[in-house]
Write a structure and sequence with these properties.
CATH superfamily of the largest domain: Enolpyruvate transferase domain
Enzyme class: transferase
Distance between the termini: 42 Å
Largest sheet: 4 strands, mixed
Mean pLDDT: 94
Keywords: Amino-acid biosynthesis, Aromatic amino acid biosynthesis, Cytoplasm, Transferase
CATH architecture of the largest domain: Alpha-beta prism
Structural class: alpha/beta
Subcellular location: Cytoplasm
Shape: globular
Pathway: Metabolic intermediate biosynthesis; chorismate biosynthesis; chorismate from D-erythrose 4-phosphate and phosphoenolpyruvate: step 6/7
Helix content: 25-40%
EC number: 2.5.1.19
Number of domains: 2
CATH topology of the largest domain: UDP-n-acetylglucosamine1-carboxyvinyl-transferase, Chain
Bound molecules: shikimate-3-phosphate, phosphoenolpyruvate
Low-confidence stretches: 1-11
Oligomer: single chain
């Protein structure tokens, strides 16, 4: 498990983490980037492969800490996951044979790391197996919202206990799998994370009576991620009715084995595209999907609103930064928000980000972390009830802490492109979803022509 800063855990002083001198751009970047596979798609298809009616193959999947944790968890639950040669630059493909729910297990201990997809998607799988499965993760994982999954499993007749038999509200806990879940109508409050809905929909077809999931409470965030879950389920033959808002009906039935190519991670394309704005340069991302459920497709509108020219031609997205970054208002940017906030801190006018209160339950409290780190560089950022206000200010050199959060680290890298002397703490934390980040970033900055001259 990786280290976290004291700010993350509220604990006593942690060992100092290495500082990475963020490359400063002395001119415009001019780069073409190919990003690794989508975390959200890889981990959804891995879960479905473990439940499928035969062996499946994932082509060009993500290889990162979050996918490795998912693979390890599925193996512990009895699935077989084997790396086989891939056909491109994305590393090995994966072949998966499903888990056997009938095979009992006792005391399997699953490490969720800091991966929301593992801590939310895997406990319902453990519920389908007979036996006990213990879940824990990184220190900060214990602060992430989990109560809804625990209550949902309990309501489904699957006991979940903490040490000493207490009822838990967070990690760590033990799922006492029954080997069979009846399902039916289940009411949850998914206002803290869309992953609660996705987690239950992914397994719903394997419940005896299927699942009618109903959300009651404040709005569910990150709805694009639920649309992704529904589309992925339909692609493997599961019948899902999402025609009524806040209700999802999954019919019981088989999950068909599949052979699936994973789209690249459009959220992780974000920091590279942001570099075009931060340096008034051009960044192209190849293989941009013509249609996708990934929230990262929003980059096309977000970056255009901030003054960039954005085109998609022959599957390549090209972003060219304008003379200034325009401040703007954005609602519900979900996991894109840290990258957007970094650009807002470099903008020439004020920006307001709304609809992201739930970011307080992400890898760290992202609203507090973004305000602290932008302001420590001389910026002017303020937390609101459901987001951030960021006003223009001259930034200076300093350290950006990453709080074990890959998107805080990449936000620091964006700031460092435009502000000389920025150091990012623990850049290796980008391995959560993109271990190649430091190398890819250096390659992108390396495209700056030596004749571009110094920026003002
Ligand atoms: O299901 C998914 O793959 C995700 C859903 C979202 O979670 P929240 O709804 O908690 O924001 C998103 O932020 C996260 O990065 C990935
Ligand atoms: C919120 C995120 O991750 P997780 O899947 O751990 O929730 C994220 O990647 O921005």
């Amino acid at each position: 498990m990786t280290g976290t800063t004291a700010a993350n855990t509220g604990s006593t002083k942690a060992a100092p983490l290495p500082l990475w001198p963020a490359p400063y751009a002395k001119g415009p970047v001019d780069a073409t980037v190919t990003v690794p596979g989508s975390k959200s798609l890889t981990n959804r298809f891995l879960v479905l492969a473990a439940l499928a009616d035969g062996p499946s193959r994932l082509r060009a999947p993500l290889h990162s800490r979050d996918s490795a944790l998912m693979i390890q968890a599925l193996r512990q639950l009895g699935a077989t996951v084997t790396e086989v040669p891939g056909d491109g630059d994305y590393g090995p493909d994966l072949e998966i044979t499903p888990m056997d729910p009938a095979a009992p297990s006792t005391g399997t201990a699953i490490d969720c790391g800091l991966a929301g997809t593992v801590m939310r998607f895997v406990p319902p799988l453990a519920a389908l197996r007979k036996g006990t499965t213990v879940f824990d993760g990184d220190p900060h994982a214990r602060n992430r919202p989990m109560g809804t999954i625990i209550e949902a499993l309990t309501a489904l007749g699957v006991p979940v206990a903490a040490e000493g038999g207490r009822t838990p509200s967070a990690l760590p806990f033990t799922v006492n799998g029954t080997g069979e879940v009846r399902g039916g109508h289940l009411v949850i409050d998914a206002s803290a994370s869309s992953q609660f809905v996705s987690a239950l929909l992914l397994v719903g077809a394997r419940f005896t009576d299927g699942l009618h999931l109903e959300h009651v409470g404040k709005p569910v965030p990150s709805l694009d991620h639920i649309t992704m879950t529904v589309e992925v389920l339909r692609s493997v033959g599961v019948n899902v009715d999402d025609s009524v808002p806040n209700h999802w009906r999954v019919s019981p039935g088989p999950i068909h084995a599949f052979d699936q190519r994973i789209e690249q991670d459009l959220s992780n394309a974000g920091p590279f595209l942001a570099a075009a704005l931060a340096t008034q340069g051009t960044v192209r991302v190849t293989n941009w999907p013509a249609g996708t459920t990934q929230v990262g497709d929003m980059w096309r509108t977000i970056l255009a609103t901030m003054g960039a020219s954005v085109t998609v031609e022959n599957g390549t997205l090209t972003v060219t930064g304008g003379p200034v970054i325009k401040g703007a208002d954005f609602d519900e940017t979900s996991e894109l928000a840290p990258t957007v906030a970094a650009l807002c801190a470099l903008a020439d006018g004020p920006s307001r980000l709304t609809g992201i209160a739930h970011l307080r339950g992400h890898e760290t409290d992202r609203l507090a972390a973004l305000v602290a780190e932008i302001n420590s560089l001389g910026g002017d950022a303020e937390e609101t009830a459901d987001g951030l206000v960021i006003r223009p200010a001259a930034l200076h050199a300093g350290v950006v802490h990453s709080y074990a959060d890959h998107r805080m680290a990449t936000a620091g890298a964006i700031l460092g492109l435009a502000v000389e002397g920025v150091e990012v703490e623990d850049i290796a934390t980008t391995s959560k979803t993109m271990p190649e980040f430091p190398e890819m970033w250096a390659r992108m900055v390396g495209t700056i022509s030596s004749t571009d001259g110094a920026k003002n």
